[in-house]
Amino acid sequence: MSNLQTESQQELEETMETSEPNVAAETERALDHVPYFGYSLLRDVLIPELLGDETNTISYWAGKHLARKYPLNTMDEIIAFFKAASWGTLTLAKKDKYSLELELSGDVVSKRFQQETCSFHLESGFVAEQIQRQNNCLTEAYLTPKEKNGKVLISVQWDRKDILPTETRAERYKK
Asked: What are phi and psi of 153, to 5 degrees?
């Protein structure tokens, strides 16, 4: 594991350990920590320019790849990761036997909607892979942007019949 990745994981762990209940203050601090203009240039201008029509698909799979690098064990850890990564505020809206709905909101999400092209597929793929790891069965996530409200609905579904084989889990989630 590289020094940069180790440092990033340490920062994430520290942020998750010291997470505060005041979400608005945490979001403001996150926006100060990551300059929004630079973030937006990469996510909403450069990457779509480079990837073209494949932006959403590649971003989804990149999110799954990131989730394998940063495996999380609980929904609370996923929520804390979103704050630490400055992806917005993630909240659990609904949970059923084979699905859940998450809401992504916050200043960074609202600002990204103002861009001509914005994709939340990276976040969606990240959530799908984390839930897949936690449930040990194939999982997919679908997006419903709610531009008027400045929110994104991430619907996650899994099928308990599609259990991941042990060797697949070991290969995907090895440290």
From this structure: -95, 125
Q: Are 167 and 136 in contact (CB under 8 A)?
A: no
Across the chain, which distance is largest between two alpha carbons, in Å? Answer: 44
Query: Taking Cα atoms as reference points, which of 76, 61, 69 lies closest to residue 15?
Result: 76
pLDDT bin (cut points 50, 70, 90) of residue 87 is very high
Query: What amino acid occupies position 139?
Result: T
d(CA 8, CA 60): 21
- CA nearest 130: which of 79, 57, 86? 79
Whole-model pTM above 0.85?
A: no
CA distances 128 to 43, 117, 125, 155, 172, Å, are 20, 22, 5, 9, 14
Q: Is the pLDDT of residue 103 over 50?
A: yes
Residue 31 token pair: 């926006």
| Three-state SS annotation for 133-166 | HHHCEEEEEEEEEEHHHCEEEEEEEEEEEEECCH
CA 16 – CA 20 distance, rounded (Å): 9
What residues contact 137, with CB distance under 8 A and at least 6 apart?
A: 158, 159, 160, 161, 162, 163, 164
Side chain identity, residue 74: T
